[in-house]
Amino acid sequence: MAKTNPGRFFEDYSIGQVLHHAVPRTVTVGERALYHALYPARHALYSSDEFARSCGLPQSPIDDLAAFHVVFGKTVPDISLNAVANLGYAEGRWLQPVHPGDTLRSDSEVIGLKQNSNGKTGVVWVRTRGLNQRDEVVIEYVRWVMVRKSNLDAPAPETVVPDLKKALAPGDLVVPSGLDFSKYDFALAGEPHRWGDYQIGETIDHVDGVTVEEAEHMLATRLWQNTAKVHFDLTFRPDGRLIYGGHVISMARALSFNGLANAQMIVGLNGGAHANPCFAGDTVKAWSEVLDKAETGVPGVGAIRLRLVATKGGEAFALRGPDGKYSPDVLLDLDYWALMPI
Question: What is the full DSSP assignment across 265-288?
Answer without folding.
Answer: EEEEEEEEEE-S---TTPEEEEEE
